[in-house]
Amino acid sequence: MPRRLLLARPRGYCAGVERAVDTVERLLERHGAPVYVRKQIVHNLHVVRRLEERGAVFVESEDEVPAGATVVLSAHGVAPEVHRNAALRSLNTVDATCPLVTKVHREARRFAQEGNTVYLIGHAGHEEVVGTMGEAPEAIVLVQTVEEVPALAEPATAGVAYVTQTTLSVDETNAVIAALRARFPHIVGPPKEDICYATTNRQAAVKSLAAEVDLMLVIGSANSSNSNRLVDVTRALGVPAYLIDDEGDIDEVWLDGAETVGITSGASAPEWLVERVVDWFRERGVAEVAEHDVIDEDVHFVLPPGVR
C-alpha cells in the first residue's frame, strides 16, 4: 500500500459544470419534479444518478419531453435545430450550455458566414462536437488527428479557419493546429484558444504532479473527454494512470510498488468523490495526504436566464 497521497489542485468541477448542475438543482427546488434534461447534464455518472433521485428525467432528445414542459440543455451545447424543435413543441427551454462552448459556436458560425471552410478539431460523436457542427454543417469539417490533415480534401473556399472542442489535450491540439497551419498557411483561428481554462489548468496540474508520483488515479466517467485526456497526458509522461468512476474501481494490483499516488478529478467530477477515494486509502492505513498546488482558479459564470 502507498505511503502517501498527493491531490492535484486545481481538480474537479469547473465553472461551466457547476453552473449546469446548479441550474437543474434550482429548477427542482423551485418547481419540483420532473425537470427534463436533454442528454447527461454533465458527463459524470454519479452526478446524473443523484439528480435522477431528486426528480430529474434525462432524455436523449427534446422530442421525448412532453409539450409545454421545462427542458434543460446540457453543458455541452446543442445545434440550432434543437432550439427550433423545442420552440415548435412549446417547451420552456433553459440553456445550461457552458459559456465557453457558446463562444466556440459563435466563432464557427462567424467563420462560416465569412465564407471559410471551418476545420473543427475534436472527437467524432462527442455532444459538444455534434452541437458545434450543427451551426454550419455545410462548412465545417471535423479533424481528429494530425495524421488526418494531409488527407483532407481541398477546401471549396478560398478562406479556411479552425476552431476546437473545449476539452481536448492541449499538446495534441497544438500539434493538429501546427499541421493545419503547415498545409494552409493562411488559415485563421480564434483570437483566444478554445480549449477551456479548466481543461488547460487540470492538464498543467497533472503534468506537475506526475513528476512527484508513481501512479495517477483520475476520477471521472468513461464518457468524460477532459477526464480521459488527464489519463493520456499522464501516461505520455511515463507515469501509469487509470480512470476510475469511484473508489470501487481501484485495483489494488495497480498499487504494487507505488510509494506515492497522485489523485485528480475531471471537470465534471464532484469533490465528494475525491473525498471517498481518499477515505478508501485512509481505511487501508495511508495517513499522509497533501495538496499539490499549481494554479489558483477563481472563475464563476452567472446562471442562465429563467434560473437567476
Spell out the blueprint of helices and strands.
Elements: E1 4-9, H1 15-31, E2 35-38, H2 45-54, E3 56-59, E4 70-73, H3 80-88, E5 92-95, H4 99-113, E6 116-121, H5 127-133, E7 140-143, E8 159-164, H6 170-183, H7 197-210, E9 215-219, H8 225-236, E10 241-244, E11 260-265, H9 271-283, E12 288-293
Parallel strand pairs: 1-11, 1-12, 2-3, 2-4, 4-5, 6-7, 6-8, 9-10, 9-11
Helix pairs in contact: 4-5, 7-8
Keywords, please?
single chain; alpha/beta; Cobalt-precorrin-4 Transmethylase, domain 1; Rossmann fold; 3 domains; 5-stranded parallel sheet; 9 helices
CATH architecture of the largest domain: 3-Layer(aba) Sandwich
Low-pLDDT runs of 5+ residues are: none
Number of strands: 12
Q: Helical region count? A: 9
Radius of gyration: 21 Å
CATH topology of the largest domain, anyone? Cobalt-precorrin-4 Transmethylase, domain 1
Widest β-sheet, arrangement of strands: 10-9-11-1-12
User: How does the major sheet shape up?
Assistant: 5 strands, parallel
Quick summary of this structure?
The chain is an alpha/beta fold.
Task: Tell me about this structure.
The chain is an alpha/beta fold and 308 residues long. It folds into three domains: 4-13 and 196-293, 3-Layer(aba) Sandwich (Cobalt-precorrin-4 Transmethylase, domain 1); 15-97, 3-Layer(aba) Sandwich (Rossmann fold); 100-183, Cobalt-precorrin-4 Transmethylase, domain 1 (3-Layer(aba) Sandwich). The chain is built from nine helices and twelve strands. The chain has helices at 15-31, 45-54, 80-88, 99-113, 127-133, 170-183, 197-210, 225-236, 271-283, and strands at 4-9, 35-38, 56-59, 70-73, 92-95, 116-121, 140-143, 159-164, 215-219, 241-244, 260-265, 288-293. Strands 10-9-11-1-12 form a five-stranded parallel sheet, sandwiched between helices. Strands 3-2-4-5 form a four-stranded parallel sheet, with helices on both faces. It has a three-stranded parallel sheet with strand order 7-6-8. Helix 4 runs parallel beside helix 5 (127-133) and helix 7 (197-210) packs parallel to helix 8 (225-236). The longest helix has 17 residues, at 15-31. The radius of gyration is 21 Å and the shape is flat. The model has no long low-confidence stretch (mean pLDDT 97).
